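FAQ: What does the model actually see?

It sees only this:
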Amino acid sequence: MARLALQTDSTRLVTVFIEEDHNPTVKVEGVTQGHHSLTHHGNKPETLTELRRVEEAQFGTFRDLLAGLRDFKESGASLLDQTSVLYGTNLGNANAHSNDNLPVLLAGGGFKHGQHLAFDSKRNEPLANLFVSLLQRLGLEEDKFASGTKTMRGLEYA
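And it is asked to produce this:
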């Protein structure tokens, strides 16, 4: 639905939230617990295995979204080239409820991709600098966003 909404120019912004409704089970083969319960895995191998299955299913859906955007051509470029897609979470380590070092994935939007940017975990690059980069890529002349005061290092345009 998100791809179709972008493809038909029905919207230029889509937010997808995977609800944590504390369901007792997740509809993924081999998973017997709810996603929220799995994130509090206590480093138990069997729980981590189920969590991995859930996250692999989520990334499969994400992959399909990116492929659909890539395959739709518009004005000589793919819709993915013209769309910034940000995938992330509100916790860096859900098992400990830590919101340090949040993992995010950025695709499309004309940025240079195919790299992993890892920053010093103690003196980390503010995530808000990514948002400054995104705003500037949209053509807004902003030099700060929340605690971000510059563009993110290593995130160049293609």
